[in-house]
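User: I'm putting together a teaching handout on how multi-component assemblies are represented. Below are the sequence lines for each component of a complex, exactly as they appear in our records. Could you produce the 3D structure of the whole assembly as structure tokens, so the students can see both representations side by side? Please keep the chain order the same as the input.
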Amino acid sequence: MSDEQQVFSSDDVRQHVRMLEALLFAAEEPLDEVTLSARLPDGVDIIALLEALQNAYQSRGVNLVCVAGKWMFRTAEDLSFLMQEERVEEKRLSRAALETLAIIAYHQPVTRAEIEEIRGVSISKGTLDILLDAEWVRMRGRRKSPGRPVTYGSTEEFMRHFGLEALTDLPGVDELKAAGLLSNRVPANFAVPIPNASEELESDEDPLESEGDFFEEPLNDGDEQVQETKHVS
Amino acid sequence: MSDEQQVFSSDDVRQHVRMLEALLFAAEEPLDEVTLSARLPDGVDIIALLEALQNAYQSRGVNLVCVAGKWMFRTAEDLSFLMQEERVEEKRLSRAALETLAIIAYHQPVTRAEIEEIRGVSISKGTLDILLDAEWVRMRGRRKSPGRPVTYGSTEEFMRHFGLEALTDLPGVDELKAAGLLSNRVPANFAVPIPNASEELESDEDPLESEGDFFEEPLNDGDEQVQETKHVS
Amino acid sequence: MTDQAEIEEPGKEEGASQVAVPRVPAPCAPEDPFTAGTVYAGEVSEDALIIDVNGYEGPLDLLLDMARTQKVDITQISILALVEQYLVFIAELRQKRLELAADYLVMAAWLAYLKSRLLLPDPDDGSEEPSGEEMAAALAFRLRRLEAMRDVASQLMNRNRLGRDVFARGQPEGVRIERTNEYVGDLFELLRAYSFQRESRIEVHYTIKRLPVLTLTNAREILTRLVGGIAEWTPMDVLLSQYTRGEISHGSTVASTFGASLELAREGVIELRQSSAFAPLYMRAGNQTKTSGPKSSGQ
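Assistant: Of course. Below is the structure of the complete assembly, with chains in the same order as your input.
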């Protein structure tokens, strides 16, 4: 109820950390700060508690990490060798799917045509499907341009799987940005947008219509038709 | 390979505890000591490691526990309240339950057989249970008659829930007619009993025995058996 | 030379996107270009159209591979040498088989144009066309960008991935939801159930009242009984007056008697006569009662 930060005794704080620890251990999925706060006594400093807990686990076999803005415990990275039995069969991605995934992650929001332009080749129907199925990629909206093509972006599951706290944590994203390689064109001044994962649509995106388009999506955006025709003839 | 206990440095031991921690955390089921040993370096003292880990988590929000010879992390018992979300669902009474409740309220003390006689239908086991669970109905005593059937009456909770100050506030025939609940065609001799409000047992009631009957109560009072047989045949 | 149109519109995304080359030169982005390809899972591309050329995924992929074979930093490659190499490669392929994916041919045409622009001095006519150097830089940019994407893709795949390198809790306890049913009832409902139930159990004796009508069966019976005694034409109203009783409505008597009389007339038990519509209806015993001759019945 109250947003005011209250003064708690050190015993209280210890108990709050325990509660946080229990909640995060028990959770079936990463929890955000709002959810966590809601289950702790009013007025706790959730950030401070999370930091304390993160520090406590820093050198342990299990670490507290933040992925996509949500907190979760997971095993320490250096113990990966130990966990072979837990490992599930890895999804093997085709080169096309891998490249497409990277392009979507780094260039989002990005249309199919833009992906094709970067790869210099058309995307087969299955490639985007695989990424959508894996829940690493989602349709974000529609570009406000002729044909109103669907725009794609990465998902929270993507961030979780690859252990990314935010899209700015994508490997090499700063260098790529500085080199102007995240640009769809090559603007003279090289002012390059950083990948945008926000739920909000960009100024040149429209929301996906909930009706009508459903069955045509995700596979038949504007250029698909052209593509298909080409194949047939 | 070797069962000999080796000498490890304290750094080694720390690392072994970390490994144990990660294994137990990621495991999908509790693990026994043999399984754990097999995944740790040869020659570790698994018991000592488990104890060390258990101590480390002693006062934390999550504890390491051993159940049936297998080890697992569990939310600290004193924090289990955090893991529970109570959800109260409102339910309406079935028609049978409503009628039974009303009959008990008006006609108390009343036995199951008497309720059935008034309703003209037998009462299912669940109906009385629901009313007893809701604490609207209680067992008052036993009728001094063959089979010594249990007598039922209403509770204070019943009065509170239905907004009655006294049982005598339950409307009589004239009031029910005025409310349009009884038609004007009921015969002149039609009577609605004035509920017996006293906590005291009636002259034809015995107190419920506190011993011996426990397992037969509250669901298997005398007529239950008869009823059941009737149903089957 | 339709390519020029594409060059003029670098933002255009559709169709022959391979030739839509950005016109601004890219800056240097020195990276190790030769590791990227090795990490990909070796699945075959699904795109049968493109795979035609020795498993390359399109002309850019082919160009990138050729750039790698130059064994130099991708920022140092000679675009001209690369163009030559591509054109030779395509020419060889075309000699072997004609069916080469259109993408490769479009790229070849564009590269041939680029080559000519690079070899010839720029026409200093103030046209809007990008210079050969700009076109070359744009191509280099696209190659580097594709390479960069491959590189980060492999970096991404080599991260500690959840479920492969790092693991979430194997047995999350979750939040248990304890459902408790709370019964609600209101007094009105309770009383209504009680009243309804009690009332439904009241034993009631009903006497069913006779309906104040003359049934067809009754009318027929009466008529059959009466008609034996009437040899002469007698108006129906007169007959009716003999048995109309107070509680039975006149209308009902008339209707049923008329109905019964039609039945009896058909059977020849009586004869009917009416001079005109709404005139009195006369009846008498039919022939059948005297002779067995043909019956006649009038309306």
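A couple of points students might notice: The beta strands of chain B are 31-32, 62-67, 70-75, 84-92, 110-111, 137-143, 150-154, 205-207. Residues 3-83 of chain B form a domain with the Arc Repressor Mutant, subunit A fold (CATH 1.10.10.10).
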